[in-house]
Amino acid sequence: MAFSKNVERLQPSATIAVSTLAKRLASEGRDVIDLSAGEPDFPTPDWICDAAVGGIRDGRTRYTPVAGLPELRQAIARSLSERAGRELDWTGVVVSVGAKQSLFNACFSLFGPGDEVLIATPYWTSYPEIVTLSRALPVLVRGDPDRGLKVGPDELEAAATENTRGLIYSSPCNPTGAVYSAGELRAVAEWARDRGVWLIADEIYRPIHFGDPPGHAAGLLDLPPSSLGDHVLVDGASKAFAMTGWRIGFSFSSPEVAREMAALQSHVTSNAATPSQVAALEAYGRRDRADDAVSRMRDVFRRRRDLVVGLFDELLPQAAYVPPGGAFYLFFRVDALFPDGVQDGTAFCSWLLEETGVALVPGAAFGDDRFARLSFATSDELLEQAVRRMARAVAG
Fold first, then answer.
1. 3-class DSSP state for residue 108?
2. 0.85 surpassed by pTM
3. In this structure, are 187 and 255 located in the same domain?
4. Last-in-domain residue among 261, 286, 311
5. Do the bridges between strand 329-333 and strand 358-359 make them parallel or antiparallel, or are there none, so unpaired?
6. How far apart are CA 154 and CA 187, in angstroms?
7. Which of 92, 276, 288, 337 lies at 20 to 30 Å from 109 by C-alpha?
C-alpha cells in the first residue's frame, strides 16, 4: 500500500508506543511498573473540574473562536505579562489542542521545503517529526555533556547553514530535566536574533523547577526584549495543572504570526474543546489557587527526584545521568548496564521490560540511544521497587 510523501518518513511516537505496550502487558496479568508516561499522576484540582462541569451545565458547549475564548486568551496574556514585567498583546495568544498542536502550528506556518530547523538534542520525540511534516529538514544539534546536554551558541553556529530558519528547544528539558539559566537562554536567544532564526521555546515544564528557592524556571519572557528576535513561546495547562487529557496548549507570538497560526488551525481542528477551555480559564484566572496547587505538586516531584537520584547513586553508580533540575524525568546512560547480547538502549529497554516489568523509554526516541528516560511521575513505593528491580537485573 502506497502512502503520501507527507507521511512516508514519519515515525510513530516512541513514548506513546512504550506506554501502550506496558499497558497491554499489565492487562495480560504481568506485574508492570510503567515509568514511561510523560504526565503527572495527580488528579486535576477539583476546583478546575468544577468550573468545567459548571460551564457544561451553563451551556458552554458550542464553538468558540478558533484562537480560543477571548477571556482565556486575556487571562493567559495577563499571566505572561506578569512574568515579563510589561504589557503583552493578548491577540498574540492562540489556544490549541495541547502544546503539541501549538508546535505544529508554528512549524507548519513558519517553515517549508528547503528550510533547515535546528533541534537541541536530546529532544522531545515529536520535534523532528513535526518539522518533517512541515517539509523542512530537522538538523540535530547535540548538547554539551559538561552542561547537562544543553546547547549554546558554539554548537548552534557549528550546525547552522545559509538555509537555517529555526531553532527548537525545551527548558526544563524533556527528556533530560536540564534547565537553562537566564544567562544561557539569553546567549541562545541573542544568537538566534543575530542569525535571523525563528526561536521556538517549549516551556511546558517551566513551573516544575527544583531551583533554590523552587519555582518557575527562567523563560524567554524573563529576558530583555532587546535580546529577542522572532520567536514563538509554547506552553499549556497539561503539566503544571495535571490536565494532560483536557488537551489545552497555547502559543504566544506577535499578533501577525498568531493570525497565521489561527488560520491554519481553523482548517485542522478549529477550536480546542470548549469545556476544556472553561477549565483552563479557571486555572489561569485564579492565580492564587493555581500557584498553591502547582507548588504542592512541585514539592512532591522534588521529593521523588531526590529519592530516585539517591537510589541510582547507591544501587546503579555506573549509570551516569543528567542531574534533573526540573520536569519529572531522569535521563541516564544505559550502555554501561548492557547484559550480554544487548547492543543499544532500545534493546536494553525491551530486555528490562521482559526481565523486570519496568517500562522505560529508550534514548533513541530522543536522539541518543546510549540513554533511557525514566519518569518519576508515580508513587515513591513504585519508584523504589522499580530501581531495585533494575539493579538486581543488571547485577545478574
1. helix
2. yes
3. yes
4. 286
5. unpaired
6. 10
7. 276
Mean pLDDT by 10 residues, the chain (396 residues): 78 69 81 90 97 98 98 98 96 98 98 98 96 97 96 98 98 98 98 98 97 85 97 97 97 98 98 98 94 95 98 97 97 93 88 92 94 96 98 91
Q: How far apart are CA 56 and CA 195, in angstroms?
A: 48
Cα–Cα distance, 22 to 363 (Å, whole number):
17
Contact call for residues 93 and 73 (beta carbons, < 8 A): yes
CATH number, position 99 = 3.40.640.10
Distance of CA 269 to the CA centre of its chain: 21
Alpha helices (H) in 58-125, listed in sequence order: 70-84, 99-110
For residue 4, being part of any structural domain is answered with no
Q: Which residue has the cell 519555582?
A: 215
Amino acid at 80: L
Rg (CA), the chain: 21
**What cell was used for 51?**
468550573
Length of the chain: 396
DSSP 294-341: HHHHHHHHHHHHHHHHHHHHHH-TTS-B----BTTEEEEE-GGGPPTT
Q: Rounded distance, CA 176 to CA 315, Å?
A: 20
